[in-house]
Structures are given as C-alpha cells and as structure tokens.
Amino acid sequence: MPVPASYNDITTQNDLRDHVGTVWYDRKFFVPRSWANKQRVWLRFGSVHYEAFVYVNGEMAVRHEMGHLPFEAEITNLVKYGEENRITVMCDNALIQTTVPQGKITEVSRDDGVAIVQTYTFDFFNYAGIHRSVHLYTTPLTYIEEMEITTDLAKDNNVGFVYYKVKANGTAANEAVNNLYVRVQLRNKDGAIVANETSNSDLKGVLEVQKVLPWWPYLMHPDPGYLYQLEIFLHGENNELLDVYRQKVGIRTLSWNNTSFMINGRPVYFRGFGRHEDSDIRGKGLDLALMTRDFNLLKWIGANAYRTSHYPYSEESMQFADENGIMIIDECPSVDTENFKQELLDKHKSSMEQLIHRDRNHPSVVMWSIANEPRTNQLNAGSYFQYVANHTRELDPSRPVTAAIAVSSNDDKAAKFLDVISFNRYNGWYSNPGRLDMITKR
Q1: Which of 28, 32, 419, 428: CA 20 to 30 A from 21?
Q2: Average of pLDDT values for 122-145?
Q3: Where residue 26 falls among pLDDT bands split at 50, 70, 90?
C-alpha cells in the first residue's frame, strides 16, 4: 500500500473502500551505523487517520489519537544500528461520540449475520490511512525542540519586530542543556542579513528590522507573501555549536474590531472558499502536484483566502499559503459537534493545542476556527464552546477565534463567545433549492 495515501480507493475491493476498523501497515527500513554516535533518532508522521499505534521492532513507540495532525516519537533506543529494522502501524478509522470528529458504530443484521456500520453526519468521505509523509530523522543530543515566533510593525510599517522564544531539549546525562544561549539572524529573500543578536540563557529576544518588507495577502501588494528566513544557532559551553534551525518568517500584524479585520493596519476583504483535501485515487493523501494546481486556480480566480474545512490541511499547504499570500482560517477537525461531554471537550481542546502548536508560526494563518456547524442549539453548547474558545485564546491571543455557525441566531448558544462570528447559509441550495431569485430575499 503506497504512503502517503488513503487506502480506500487504491484497490478494486469494495470491502476495503468501505472498511471500518483497523488496518495494519508494515515495512522494513535500514538505520546507518553512524547514527549511533551522539545523536537522537526520531520517527515523525504527518498524519494518520484516525487512531494510530506505532511499533518499532515489536516495541510500542507511540500512540496518537487525532487525524490530520502530526505526531512523533524518539526511537533512539528502539532501533538497531547498521541493521535492518521493522516498523508496524495499526490504523483505526472508527469514529464514535467521543472522537473528533464524531461518528457512531452500529451493528446491523443481515442474512449472513451482523454487519458493522459506521455512520456520521458530516458530508465528506471518511478516508483513512497514513495520509502524509513519514520521516526518519536525527537531532543532536541537545537540540532545538521548538520555536515560537510573533511579529509586529511600527512607524507606518517601515520598522518590523520579530519576537522569538526557543525551547531546547537534551538528554538527562547532557549537562550542556543548562548552559545554553542562541545566536539569531534574519535574512531577506536575497540572503542578506538584515538583523541579528545573541540572546542570554532565557533563549528569547527580539530582532528589529529597518525598512522592513511586510507580509501582505495576495492582491494587496505587488509582492505578496514576502518571507524572511530566521536562523537560530544553539550554543553550549565553550561556544560549542550544538544545533541550527531555520524558519521562514512573515512580518505582519493582525487587528480587528466590530466592523473590520485588518492586516498591517489595512482593512481586508476575504474572497475565497471552503475547500477539501480530496482527490481521485489518493483520497486525502498528500499530492503536491494537485496542491500546486489548486493554488494556481485560487490566484487565477482572484481569491485571497480559504478555510481549511473541516480539518487541518497538510503542513506543505500551509507553506504554500505563506509563500503565495493566501490567508488561512485554520480549522480543527470538529465538525457537526453534538452531545457535549467532558471527554469530548478534553479531546476538542487537545485538537486545538496540536493545531496551534503546528501552525502558530505561519503568517498566512489569520484565524482559528474551533468548529464547523456544531449543534449550538443543544443545552450544553454554550458552556462547551466557551471553554474551547477561551482555551484557544490562552494558547494564542494574537489571532481571533471563530466557528462556522449553522443554527438560527435565535437558538444559537455559542456565537457570543467568538471574536468573529462566521455563519453558513445555503439559500437556493438546502432551502428553496434551485430558486436563485430567493437568495437576496431571505
């Protein structure tokens, strides 16, 4: 079975296309003997839908429950160096009332026994499998684990600021983790260094950029999607260089009020789509050729934004959006949410944590969407979405929180907790179908 791809449409077997439950992936791989020397080995998945159990040489490496989002595990002590290794992945696509998104599993009687049937209310196919790339990579013993970036502008957008915060990780036996500093520099598109500094031991600071070139959406500037490259050099004792990390950075500001959403102080009109990651044969599998075509079509039609309906899209698509100046309303996998329970709330909040951790450094991401068409008329919907919205703001106060509301404003209990109220209406489609003349009369 090819990876990355949904397994459903690869073969001609109907029972595999409509399969509900577990499937197993298995393959061998080789780890060079040189990787055993002063390095850590990691295994990273771009996404597996929905729940995954990963084994390396028969030992459990990691379990992850959430489609569309990445996960990884250190496997330094699980692999054999200079030898062949085996990786095994169990993938379970079953959706129940406490998964994000939700579904139901029922047993239906038939002539030859009982059939297991998966049902869900969302209107897209529940593709399954290893949907995005799988990477085996190494880091130094002490390495840059993550980096958080925020930006600001001043003096009529002529001066930019890049605030950075670095988190380093090291083994328990490596004392160098307590004696670290970072050297930071910012390069423009031509490779010239436009700002630099050396931090102290708290591994955070700010770069000031004169004559800055801000990140602008498509059609708002002759050079949209301008990106700098931030380079982080992690040093230990005796100025030893331990690790280097590079990150594309777009310098821009976001602000909003009761009438306008603004980028770099200028009001923005959103023109775009709700999309899906869906293609022939591959399903939701990563397809760079199709992605490139889609972005060409977006720009051809004059769009400047889209919502990742109704789940996080690939990391590669987020990079495309950064580079092309396409604004993203970044949506978690919560769709048609109902039956609001504590276990579901915990997983919903976890989906936002994982999404924000993955995408917070992308300048293209301008809003977080916490749900699509949830059943916000239900009794506990108000308190449920108040928790989710507040949790999202705590994770990232720099972007507004929204959700696509579908119930009547008289019945809705959640919209008042959002920064931006988005709503879906289908005049001429679900109501008054075929009557285009009714669209402007409701």
Answers
A1: 28
A2: 96
A3: very high
Tell me which architecture the domain covering 14-139 has in CATH: Sandwich (2.60)
For residue 148, what are its two tokens? 């958080």
CA dihedral (255, 260, 266, 269) positive or negative: positive
Domain ranges of the chain: 14-139, 141-249, 270-431
- DSSP state, 358? H
In this prediction, residue 116 carries a pLDDT of 84
Q: Are 89 and 52 in contact (CB under 8 A)?
A: yes
CATH of 270-431, one of 3.40.1190.10, 3.30.420.10, 3.90.1150.10, 3.20.20.80: 3.20.20.80
Please provide the average confidence, as pLDDT, over all residues in the chain.
95
- Greatest Cα pair distance, the chain, in angstroms, is 76
**Positive or negative torsion for Cα 61, 62, 68, 69:** negative
pLDDT surpassing 80 at residue 305? yes
- Asked whether the whole model's pTM tops 0.90, one would answer yes
Architecture of domain 141-249: Sandwich (2.60)
